[in-house]
TrEMBL record:
UniProt key word Amino-acid biosynthesis: yes
Organism (species): Thermocrinis minervae
Co-factor requirement: Mg(2+)
EC number: 2.4.2.18
Enzymatic reactions: N-(5-phospho-beta-D-ribosyl)anthranilate + diphosphate = 5-phospho-alpha-D-ribose 1-diphosphate + anthranilate
Domain Glycosyl transferase family: 74-325
Known function: Catalyzes the transfer of the phosphoribosyl group of 5-phosphorylribose-1-pyrophosphate (PRPP) to anthranilate to yield N-(5'-phosphoribosyl)-anthranilate (PRA).
Family in the record: In the C-terminal section; belongs to the anthranilate phosphoribosyltransferase family.
Residues the record lists as binding anthranilate 1: 80, 111
Gene Ontology process terms (BP): L-tryptophan biosynthetic process
Keywords: Amino-acid biosynthesis, Aromatic amino acid biosynthesis, Glycosyltransferase, Magnesium, Metal-binding, Transferase, Tryptophan biosynthesis
Gene it is expressed from: trpD
Protein name, per record: Anthranilate phosphoribosyltransferase
């Protein structure tokens, strides 16, 4: 570990083997808290490479509790990195139910809040859902209703060793990035928001190296880890072996921009209220249009259609038909019974 930390201190990139060795030392208890903190800080200051991210994701994928489903190549995840500190409502979770309402199989990976007011686990728990289901029950939910939730701490026991040092160091790091890259159900389609534009292309290239079929890695220029309703969004699209980088703005599809504060909340309760309003199609304001845009990119990632405007219509129909809200109610009900 000392040799690896020396390399990081000299801004030298690590090989895949060195990353694995460092992670083994961390997970198996040979590295001290000070060394884990130094690894986090050294990686962040040097800047994580695609090779390092891939090695880290492969390591935690191997050690995750697996969720087995039929046709895993159809599965889509909307899990992002979090850590943007914007205070928006839980867009990625609401988006997941819009996608499920459109008939797309969703393996939603998530956690409690890290820096926002509400994480996906907080949001679902506030609605009465049981969030800590074991792998076989998550599999049942995906097969029966088309959406399941994997609570990250349960599915990644290998991450336990880094929780304390991460909190003490208090910076966003390689471990923020590896969670969304380590879906326990092996989802090969992603809508993945990242906390910094620095990681948009890097994470897309990492997903490509991990064999995803279709993915969109996004970062709003207003600092959020979603497709933004208030600013252009930097997008890296993964399609097979190709990665393309471009900007997207709401006006590109005829939707006006709204101030970011229109989609921010100060509590879990506010986030739930805003999310339910969207899923019920009650108010066609900023939260609705923000979910619509994110869901449209999710539809593209699923492979249902190739045109963004067609994808928007599919997302809109999921909400306006009531199917998105019904999926949420089904999810809560069945999670309690399993």
């Amino acid at each position: 570990m000392k040799d690896i930390l020396l390399k990081l201190s000299e801004s030298q990139n690590l090989t895949k083997e060195e990353v694995r060795r460092a992670l083994e030392d961390i997970v198996e208890g040979r590295a001290t808290d000070a060394q884990i903190g130094a690894f986090i800080m050294g990686s962040r200051m040097k800047g994580e490479t695609v090779e390092e991210l891939s090695a880290c994701a492969e390591f935690f994928r191997e050690r995750a509790q697996k969720v087995f489903v039929k046709n895993p190549e159809e599965l889509l995840d909307t899990c992002g990195t979090g850590g943007d500190r914007s205070g928006t409502f839980n867009v990625s979770t609401v988006t997941a139910f819009v996608l499920a309402g459109a008939g797309i199989k969703v393996a939603k990976h998530g956690n409690r809040s890290v820096s926002s007011k509400t994480g996906s686990a907080d949001f679902l728990e506030a609605l009465g859902a049981k969030i800590d289901l074991p792998p076989e029950k998550v599999s049942t939910m995906i097969e029966e209703i088309g959406i399941g939730f994997m609570f990250a701490p349960m599915f990644h026991p290998a991450m336990k060793r880094v929780i304390g040092p991460r909190k003490e160091v208090g910076i966003k790091s390689i471990f923020n990035l590896v969670g969304p890259l380590s879906n326990p159900a092996g989802a090969r389609r992603h809508l993945l928001g990242v906390f910094s534009d620095v990681f948009v292309e890097k994470v897309a290239l990492t997903l490509k190296s991990l064999g995803v079929i279709r993915a969109f890695v996004v970062h709003g220029k207003d600092g959020i880890d979603e497709i933004s309703i208030s600013a252009p969004t930097l997008v890296a699209e993964v399609k097979g072996d190709e990665v393309s980088l471009y900007e997207f703005s709401p006006e590109d599809v005829g939707i006006r921009r709204f101030p970011l504060e229109y989609v921010t909340v100060s509590s879990v309760e506010e986030s739930v209220k805003m999310g339910l309003s969207v899923l019920k199609g009650e108010e066609l304001g900023a939260p609705y249009y923000m979910v619509l845009l994110n869901a449209a990119f999710g539809v593209l990632a699923s492979g249902l259609v190739d045109d963004l405007k067609d994808a928007i219509e599919i997302a809109k129909e999921s909400i306006q038909s009531g199917r998105a809200y019904q999926k949420l109610m089904q999810f809560v009900d069945i999670s309690q019974k399993l």
